[in-house]
Amino acid sequence: MNYCKFPTLVLIALLAHARMAADVPGGSPDLSFSYSLDATGNVVPTAPTSAISFPPTLVDGSSSATFIISNRGTASALIRAVTVTGGGFQLSGAPAPGTNVLAPGEVRFSIRFAPTLVGAAQGGLHIDSSLGILNFTLAGTGLGPVFSYTVVKATGAAPLLPSQTISFPDTAAANKANLSVQVGNTGSAPGKITDVAILGSAFQLADLPFFPVTLGPGDFVAFTVTFSPAEAGAITGRLRVGNDTFNLSGVGVGVALSLVYDVVRGSDASPVLPFQTIPFPDTQLTNKAALSVRVRNAGTASAKITDAAILGASFSLADTPFFPLTLRPGDSATMTIAFAPSQAGPATGRLRIGDDTFNLTGAGIGAALIFSYTAGGTLSAVQAGGTVILSPTAIATTGSTRFSIANNGTAAATVASIAIEGAGKIYSLPDLQALPLTIAPGESVAFTLAYTPTALGANTATLRIDQNVFPCIGSGTDPAPLPRVNLEGPSGIQDPLAQLAVGLTLAAPYSIGVNGTLTLSFDSDVFSNDPSIQFATGGRTVSFTIPANGTRAVFPNNATQVRIQTGSVAGTITISPSFSTDSGVSLASSSPAVMKLSISASAPRLLTVQVSSRSATGLTLDVTGLASGRNVRQIDLRFTPIAGVSMPSAGVTLSVEPVFSLWFQNAASQQYGGLFSVSVPISVQGTVSTGSLIDALQSVAITASNQQGVSNAQTVQLR
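Above: the chain sequence. Below: its structure as tokens.
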């Protein structure tokens, strides 16, 4: 390549020519133009009608240049539009219409050359400005490989284009004919051939290079194609070299073997070729359609058929001849193909007779039920015998799934029976439509399968739809905790022998019915139980219920409260509830409740005093009372005489602690708690003026005491 060098004066003239000036009132723009190739970075001045030359660029590659418009005048220049023409040239960052090139100032944008073809490429850059339309020439060269093909035969060489046919000479059966295919690169860059392949059993490849092979410009490679017909007749094939394909053709000379086929339906026969389709008419389920296939030897030599076979559950072969079968020229044989669909919808199969194959098609007419269910937002298909798995559901609440029956067949379906078997009332079908159901083709019906578990763990049942059964498995989980439980009634220290009312409520309604039990326990302070501490209904437990969505407990006799007896022994009474569902599953409370009542050890309390016997010299007092601490130390008697009678001593103190200790420590006392009954015999000595001394007593007052204090006084009138 020769390079030209302009003298300095000539270069100055060219630069001056690159400027474009226009007179504008108040000043004028003065535009000059240049470009810089990104590959070199050198700035090259240019002018309208001049060429902007890009470096040679690989096809599918690209190169870019930055175009510069400079204004050295005294007024701005208007750029109305910038466009490029020519294949492979593109603008990037072009100024928007109406852009002004300020004075002084410049505007830059990029021109990209991305060739798609090998060889020279030309285009144009067009700038519509206030100075007029300025045109520049764009030039570049696309580099890449160009593959050329030559067929070399014994008769000479001939060029070959992709998609053309390579013809072999007529060749005797079992003989061979060879030719060579040369591949050359006439392009301007190396090219890669990934592989060479051939299609057609009569054609073979030989003398192949190792792939992939790269051909530089001017290089070539050659390989051999062999034509070896096995029988007489025209034969075709395909050759592929990299991405280019060619047709292959040749004629086998010699004995011709030719089998022809006919499809026979009644008295009608129609020819069929290998790989074509043999259609059957639409057939009702449980019915059968049949046709015959006749094979005839139309060749010039005997042909052997080794066997016949069929593929496809709905298709079968019958009336086949004995194999292997030899057909002389002109002979034929017939076999029957039956189509018996077992399900609705399209059916396909394959028929093979010797080395020839045929497609089989048909359609079964009838209902085809498809079953599915939705659980947890997921749609699951299920076949008859498959398991329906329901989402885990809290005990005594109801979960559900939508079960769907779709008819994907070609005839209406009738569903006569849908039922749940087993599991009692745990499973139900709350919105099942009236039976029987008719489902048209393409339609579906759905119903709800509801599940209300009563026990933890798996609960099973069977969904039966006519003769189709589906085991169902649901899982019962712990019920939701109860709301806060409130025990209503007294608290703290209580009197002995009291009857207190107790009630129970929930802080909020609960969605299911609740069974419960109040349990009373007693912790004695004096190491002695008191059997009289119990519920008024008897015993230390009482049952209650809370209706679904209710809050108040209902006790026996529909009472909303139950009474307890506090007994007569010091200690702590504890009342606590427990809860369960109707099926006996325990329920926990988010805030359990316990009621505690205390009976303190206190001074004795006298309940009754009466005279049980009386004589002239004495009397006996029967005293009943209670001592919650199960301890009495002494009994005090104070007598009051009648008017006019004086007594030297009106009071008597009896130390009774040993007697009471003996009683309270006796097992027989346990059933009475802190209650006691004591007889106090009193002997009276002395004289009065008239009558007996006992008649001189007006009354007697009695008290009992222990370490906690003195009891109330009980007075008995003796007259």
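The chain is about 5% helix and 55% strand.
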